[in-house]
Amino acid sequence: MATLYDVPPEELIEALTETLADEDDIEAPDWAEFTKTGVDRELPPEQEDFWTRRAASLLRKVAVDGPVGVNALRSEYGTSKQGTTRYRVRPHQKTKGSGNIIRTALQQLEDAGYVETSENDGRRVTGDGRSLLDDTAGDLLTELDRPELERYA
Predict the structure, then answer these.
(1) Which of the pair, 87 or 28, is modelled with greater confidence?
(2) Rg (the chain; Cα; Å)
(3) DSSP code of 42?
(4) Residues 6 or more apart from 53 whose CB is under 8 A from it?
(5) Domains of the chain: which residue ranges?
């Protein structure tokens, strides 16, 4: 049986995005189209499926690193700020990602039953979330035609 560790993360997140798009609980709030993903960004994301893609990425991150809190996930989704994109005259500074986007997406994943809050530890994946990840990875492993992944099939 394939697990989420057996397939490339990019492929798994792409497949999870398609799966989570069908969920009623996972949908972008009204403010999401105007919100930047961090203080280092100048514009909001341009992807149409940004919210479900971020939720899929968060589900995988919580499964791999969990239990994990919002602040640790903010550090994961942050980048280095270098001043404006035009000049880049400042030295690199590490910035954190948007906590509101992460928190709201995690709350939606909780409502869908894929993530739960553990006492004083942060959030972790439920059994339903783990089975969704593993089933998606198994389906993806049979679809991928890559010789280096055949040992997992």
Answers:
(1) 28
(2) 17
(3) S
(4) 13, 17, 47
(5) 4-30+50-79+97-144
Give CA separation, 83 vs 22, 36, 88, 93, 147, in Å: 39, 16, 5, 9, 43
Torsion angle of the four alpha carbons 53, 143, 3, 54, in this order, in degrees rounded to the nearest 10: 0
Distance CA 108, CA 54 (A): 12
pTM of the model: 0.84
Nearest to 11, CA basis, from 136, 118, 151:
136
pLDDT digits (tens, 9 = 90+) for 10-49: 989 999 999 999 888 888 888 888 887 777 677 777 788 8
For the segment 90-142, what is each residue's pLDDT rounded down to a tens digit? Answer: 667 778 888 888 999 999 999 999 999 988 888 999 999 999 999 999 888 88
H/E segment holding residue 104: helix 99-112
Q: Which of 110, 112, 132 is nearest to 122 (CA)?
A: 110
What would be the CATH architecture of the domain defined by 4-30+50-79+97-144? Orthogonal Bundle (1.10)
Phi-psi map region of 113: left, alpha, beta (phi>0 left; psi -120 to 50 alpha): left
